[in-house]
Hints:
- About 80% of the residues lie in helices and about 0% in strands.
- It has 7 helices and no strands.
- It is rod-shaped.
Amino acid sequence: xxxxxxxxxxxPLQQKVFRFALSFTHDxxxxxxxxxxxxxxxxxxxxxxxxxxxxxxxxxxxxxNLCLDKIKLRRIHTERLxxxxxxxxxxxxxxxxxxxxxxxxxxxxxxxxxxxTIIHLRDIEGYEMDKVAEIMEIREDAARVLLSRARKxxxxxxxxxxxxxxx
Length: 167
């Protein structure tokens, strides 16, 4: 196909190609880009266009395929962005858990030694109260009182830390 035939036969389809692309993408800029890309490819292959019995049908099929490729690419980018954001959320949550763990450990270290020990044995190691009392060599009711006071003191420490700077 020569230049004159291309201008007379193919170029007048430009608005139809644009509207077809717009019906897929719903984005004027993207439809314009697809139209431009289609015409660049058609111009590069202008010598082969005479082989097609229905050039308009071939052009519309090309536009359709290009639109579907763009939509698929957009979906992939959206999914990757969502995965990236999800990864960031996971990392932020992990960092927050790490910070919280450090804060709790710091608050426990501020407790008196016996309270630190009972919190560790009961709440961290998971020993039953009778075993905690036996390990600490105190009565079970004394262990319960000590644990209650340690938890209350820990709660106060954590509240003070968390509310630091809050007016």
